[in-house]
UniProtKB/TrEMBL annotation:
Membrane topology label: Multi-pass membrane protein
Location(s), subcellular: Cell inner membrane
Species whose genome carries this gene: Halotalea alkalilenta
Name used for this protein in its record: MATE family efflux transporter
PANTHER family tied to this protein: MULTIDRUG RESISTANCE PROTEIN NORM-RELATED, MULTIDRUG RESISTANCE PROTEIN YPNP-RELATED
GO-annotated cellular components: plasma membrane
Domain of life of the organism encoding this protein: Bacteria
Length: 460
């Protein structure tokens, strides 16, 4: 992390993170597969709940950025006392915020479904699924924070193994909980939610047990779980902008869906298919961004600013070149890629291929932005990433999509062109902001702290 070839360090961190993210995305695929056997109303019940769940997760998961950033800098500084203190305090923050959101969600769930005009045949299943998943936010946020702590410490294999085990377990217990088996009653749609809740709870339990044993470079001690309100406020200020960032993106996606829906079923289907492909493209970029954040953060904590700069440059180059090559391949194979999802609908294939080809050559710019966002987070500049997200979604993309599709009379193509133009403008803005980054003031470590009395761990 602090010495040796940078490329190898990035690769060792990024690959397990990418695989773990891919595995976690299979939770919804597994649920969709089995729930689909219950019929259209059951699928609709799950589908209508997903945007609400995603928004709740976005609101809370931003705090994991604070955990990862602070842990990385203290690990880089070899300050074991503060590393353990940070772990306890950010976990408290995650648990407290999740319980608050759970209480709010249980009260708001029926009101949100009514606001969405959910049909009577779907309402009961949707409410059950939503309330169970919101009830498990403490497990979801807790395990997300455990993963963030491990990333900050440079340990990315253990979370991968835990995710792999729980995904397999989820696939095994989904059918009996949904359809019933022996003494287990059939819970229907709620069974899928119960399966996810149980596996997420198990994942968090394993993570906390490993932290308590102190085998992963961080020791979760009881005294670290006593609230340090000043530190919690500091972590909240660092993490809250990331929550706003993710929420802004989630709401922006929903607003784009409303614009797309005005152009009919074919356009909605094409947009959905290409969005699924874009989600797969973003996963490796996100993994590299997370690895960059951990690596840059540790080197900032160690005072190795020039090495941190070098990591930022190399990560940006890798992301830009790698995703540009993916973009070329996507452009050439666009009809075939869309046809994987809708093999028997030529109109959707043609519309989706046109969208994919319009955006494909800017994939590299997406990677560049995400790598530099990882650098901003490592430096504690979460307000910067929040502002970039707000500008991207609400100042550029949505107004541009509306103007090009309506006022400029480009129709559906105007929607598609909003994506590459946004990527181009945001890459330029992100690079300009990065050029202004004050590397001499990126350390988040205070000169002293009550928990900062232990000896620093020896150089490893």
């Amino acid at each position: 992390m602090l010495e040796g070839p940078i490329f190898g360090s990035l690769l060792k961190l990024a690959l397990p993170i990418i695989v773990a993210n891919l595995l976690q995305s299979t939770y919804q695929l597994i649920d969709a597969f089995w729930v689909g056997r219950l019929g259209g109303d059951a699928v609709a019940a799950v589908s209508i709940s997903l945007p609400i769940n995603f928004l709740a997760f976005a609101l809370g998961s931003g705090f994991s950025v604070a955990g990862s950033t602070l842990i990385a800098q203290y690990v880089g500084a070899r300050n074991r006392a503060m590393t353990d203190h940070v772990a306890g305090q950010v976990l408290l923050l995650a648990f407290g915020f999740s319980l608050l959101l759970t209480a709010l969600g249980q009260w708001a769930a029926p009101r949100m479904l009514t606001l969405l005009s959910v049909e009577p045949g779907v309402y009961d299943d949707a409410l059950a699924f939503l309330r169970i998943t919101l009830g498990g936010l403490v497990f979801t946020f807790g395990f997300a924070m455990f993963q963030a702590l491990m990333r900050g410490a440079g340990e990315v294999r253990i979370p991968l193994y835990i995710v792999l085990g729980t995904v397999v377990l989820n696939a095994l217990i989904d059918p009996p909980l949904i359809f019933g088996w022996g003494p287990i009653p059939a819970f229907g749609v709620a069974g899928a939610a119960f399966a996810t809740l149980l596996t997420q709870g198990l994942a968090l339990g394993i993570g906390l047990w490993l932290l308590a044993r102190g085998k992963l470079g961080i020791v979760l001690r009881l005294r670290a779980l006593r609230p340090d309100w000043a530190f919690i406020a500091r972590a909240f200020r660092l993490g809250f902008p990331s929550s706003v960032e993710l929420s802004a993106r989630a709401l922006g996606m929903n607003a784009m869906v409303l614009m797309v829906a005005a152009f009919g079923t074919v356009t909605i289907a094409a947009y959905g298919v290409v969005n699924s492909l874009l989600a797969l493209v973003i996963i490796p970029a996100l993994g590299l961004s997370m690895a960059t954040s951990a690596l840059v953060g540790q080197n900032i904590g160690a005072g190795q600013i020039e090495r941190a700069r070098s990591i930022a440059r190399l990560s940006s180059v890798i992301a830009f070149i790698g995703l540009s090559l993916v973009g070329v391949a996507a452009f050439l194979a666009a009809p075939s890629l869309v046809a994987v999802f809708v093999p028997d609908d030529p109109e959707v294939i043609a519309t989706g291929a046109r969208f994919l080809r319009t955006v494909a050559f800017t994939f590299g710019l997406i990677g560049l932005q995400m790598s530099l966002s990882g650098v901003f987070r490592a430096a504690g500049q979460t307000v910067v990433t929040m502002n970039l997200a707000l500008v991207s979604q609400w100042v550029i993309q949505l107004p541009l999509a509306w103007f090009l599709s309506r006022e400029a009379a480009f129709g559906v193509d105007g929607l598609w062109w909003a994506f590459p133009l946004t990527n181009l403008l945001m890459a330029a803005i992100t690079m300009l902001w990065y050029a202004r980054l004050d590397w001499q003031r990126v350390s988040l470590l205070p000169s002293s702290h009550p928990a900062d009395q232990g000896a620093r761990s020896p150089r490893r």
